[in-house]
Write a structure and sequence with these properties.
This protein is an alpha+beta fold and 71 residues long. The chain is 18% helix and 21% strand. It has a two-stranded antiparallel ribbon.
């Protein structure tokens, strides 16, 4: 059973908190931006988390580039 309160104790978590694609609902934007909150479990690495995000997104979008900002 998946428990949203216990899962962060045992694995790295990824939560998209903001996504923006265009200024209007009926317009396909040239670019899209997403802010993904990543909480890295002790023992995992930033590099491993970034590779996971890339692997998930590349399945959705064929022409994809990344710009990373870490806070």
């Amino acid at each position: 059973r998946h428990d949203k309160y216990i899962a962060p104790l045992f694995r790295t978590t990824f939560v998209p908190t903001q996504i923006k694609g265009s200024e209007a609902a009926n317009v396909i934007g040239d670019t899209a931006n997403a802010i993904i909150n990543v909480r890295i479990l002790q023992g995992d690495t930033v590099e491993k988390a970034v590779e996971h995000i890339k692997a998930v997104l590349i399945c959705l979008v064929h022409n994809l580039s990344f710009e990373w900002q870490f806070f």
